């Protein structure tokens, strides 16, 4: 990365205020919240996230607008000699492209989500002003380590001297100590959400979360965010704490959080159709699926019957994932992902049955599963598509849902 960025004139040094985000779950939510708040405050804001759902250009945005395909082509041509010389990977080249685009466009702030881990992540070449670590869980263990402490150590390595660090990782847990140690080693500044914020959930509905939030004993504020599920509350608090530390007003925070859709926030319990409601979700580890199941239970009075279409990658903890969603579903259809990394649908069906699913079957593709449910689901039902970014991307790309979303705006 250093060699590639050197060939590009070191754009990572020209990104304005840098917010660097690592963690197991919640990274994308926090990143979109911060970026949307920054835009509302008048800052020209770059946002780099991964993976994309439908189009590569979703990964790189300024003030919510995706990089154009022509700009991607132009940067590819510009970067090609350096990519060949350095042997850069796809993600390294994509990261360098994002930084070059943000620098060329003169952003005031850059919100950067790590790809995986932190210490060896391609994004870990920036000198962060703000570091946010929403959560630490057991995922990518073959690369990051087999314990929460090891994983936290990898992710906390994005902390730099002078960074302000914000985390929702519990102080009493195994994962907190490596974060504290990294903060102390860097001479950084640590803020833990449960120490400095109080919140209560006022309302939970499809696509909207109302919170009452107070920071460090200050006056409570009423906040609405375009999110589904009360579990997002700590993520919202982290984004607000980070923004307030940079002097962003409460008015800009209150303006930005309802507008997450304008920053490309997708597929985190996103409603993409009605009658029946179709929800798109990308939870792909046990901790994330537990929160998805919790959110579905909060919304249980909104629908009559819950159908779940699920696909899981072979390198994920499929048994742990289905353990949380199987008891919530009335019927499950297991499918294969549109990738060679997929767990076979028959194997996933077996795991769902072992986890207590009363009615479970399998189909080869999500298209076949949706066709099957078209003949079963009533207007009052919900269909939840979950388990993988690959699966969510395949559904988001379907014309029936693209058309429904376009006609309704960002649902």
Automatic annotation (TrEMBL):
BP GO annotations: folic acid biosynthetic process
Annotated ranges, domain Mur ligase C-terminal: 268-389
Enzyme class, spelled out: ligase
E.C. code: 6.3.2.12, 6.3.2.17
Ligase in keyword set: yes
GO molecular function, one term: metal ion binding
Mur ligase central domain ranges (all copies): 21-243
Catalytic activity field: (6S)-5,6,7,8-tetrahydrofolyl-(gamma-L-Glu)(n) + L-glutamate + ATP = (6S)-5,6,7,8-tetrahydrofolyl-(gamma-L-Glu)(n+1) + ADP + phosphate + H(+); 10-formyltetrahydrofolyl-(gamma-L-Glu)(n) + L-glutamate + ATP = 10-formyltetrahydrofolyl-(gamma-L-Glu)(n+1) + ADP + phosphate + H(+); (6R)-5,10-methylenetetrahydrofolyl-(gamma-L-Glu)(n) + L-glutamate + ATP = (6R)-5,10-methylenetetrahydrofolyl-(gamma-L-Glu)(n+1) + ADP + phosphate + H(+); 7,8-dihydropteroate + L-glutamate + ATP = 7,8-dihydrofolate + ADP + phosphate + H(+)
Pfam families assigned to the protein according to its UniProt record, in alphabetical order: Mur_ligase_C (PF02875), Mur_ligase_M (PF08245)
Keywords: ATP-binding, Folate biosynthesis, Ligase, Magnesium, Metal-binding, Nucleotide-binding
GO cellular component terms, semicolon-separated: cytoplasm
Pathway connected to this protein: Cofactor biosynthesis; tetrahydrofolylpolyglutamate biosynthesis; Cofactor biosynthesis; tetrahydrofolate biosynthesis; 7,8-dihydrofolate from 2-amino-4-hydroxy-6-hydroxymethyl-7,8-dihydropteridine diphosphate and 4-aminobenzoate: step 2/2
Family under the similarity heading: Belongs to the folylpolyglutamate synthase family.
Function of the protein: Functions in two distinct reactions of the de novo folate biosynthetic pathway. Catalyzes the addition of a glutamate residue to dihydropteroate (7,8-dihydropteroate or H2Pte) to form dihydrofolate (7,8-dihydrofolate monoglutamate or H2Pte-Glu). Also catalyzes successive additions of L-glutamate to tetrahydrofolate or 10-formyltetrahydrofolate or 5,10-methylenetetrahydrofolate, leading to folylpolyglutamate derivatives.
Protein name: Dihydrofolate synthase/folylpolyglutamate synthase
């Amino acid at each position: 990365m250093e060699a590639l960025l050197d060939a590009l004139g070191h754009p990572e040094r020209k990104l304005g205020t840098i917010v660097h985000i690592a963690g197991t779950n919640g990274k994308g939510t926090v990143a979109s919240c911060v970026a949307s708040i920054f835009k509302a405050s008048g800052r020209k804001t770059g946002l780099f996230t991964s993976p994309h759902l439908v189009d590569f250009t979703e990964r790189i945005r300024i003030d919510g607008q995706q990089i154009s395909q022509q700009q991607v082509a132009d940067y590819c041509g510009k970067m090609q000699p350096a990519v060949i010389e350095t042997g850069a990977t796809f993600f390294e080249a994509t990261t360098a492209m994002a930084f070059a685009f943000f620098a060329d466009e003169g952003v005031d702030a850059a919100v950067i989500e790590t790809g995986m881990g932190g210490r060896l992540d391609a994004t870990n070449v920036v000198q962060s002003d703000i570091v946010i670590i929403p959560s630490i869980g057991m995922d990518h263990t073959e690369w990051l380590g087999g314990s929460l402490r090891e994983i936290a150590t990898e992710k906390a390595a994005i902390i730099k001297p002078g960074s302000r660090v914000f985390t929702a990782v519990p102080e009493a847990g195994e994962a907190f100590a490596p974060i504290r140690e990294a903060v102390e080693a860097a001479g950084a500044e640590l803020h833990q959400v449960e120490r400095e914020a109080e919140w209560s959930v006022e309302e939970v509905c499809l696509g909207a979360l109302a919170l009452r939030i107070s920071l460090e004993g200050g006056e409570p504020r009423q906040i609405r965010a375009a999110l589904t599920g009360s579990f997002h509350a700590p993520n919202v608090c982290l984004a607000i704490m980070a923004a307030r530390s940079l002097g962003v007003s409460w008015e800009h925070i209150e303006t930005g959080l309802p507008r997450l859709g304008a920053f490309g926030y997708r597929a985190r319990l996103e409603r993409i159709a009605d009658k029946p409601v179709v929800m798109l979700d990308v939870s792909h580890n046990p901790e994330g699926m537990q929160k998805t199941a919790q959110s579905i239970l909060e919304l249980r009075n909104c629908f009559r019957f819950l159908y779940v279409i699920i696909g899981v990658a072979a390198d994920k903890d499929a048994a742990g994932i289905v353990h949380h969603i199987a008891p919530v579903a009335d019927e499950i259809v297991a499918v294969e992902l549109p990738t060679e990394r997929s767990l076979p649908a028959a194997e996933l069906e077996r795991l769902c049955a072992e986890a207590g699913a009363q009615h479970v079957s399998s189909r080869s593709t999500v298209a076949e599963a949706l066709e099957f449910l078209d003949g079963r689901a009533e207007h009052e039902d919900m269909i939840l598509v979950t388990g993988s970014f690959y699966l969510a991307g395949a559904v988001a790309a379907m014309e029936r849902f693209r058309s429904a979303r376009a006609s309704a705006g960002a649902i």
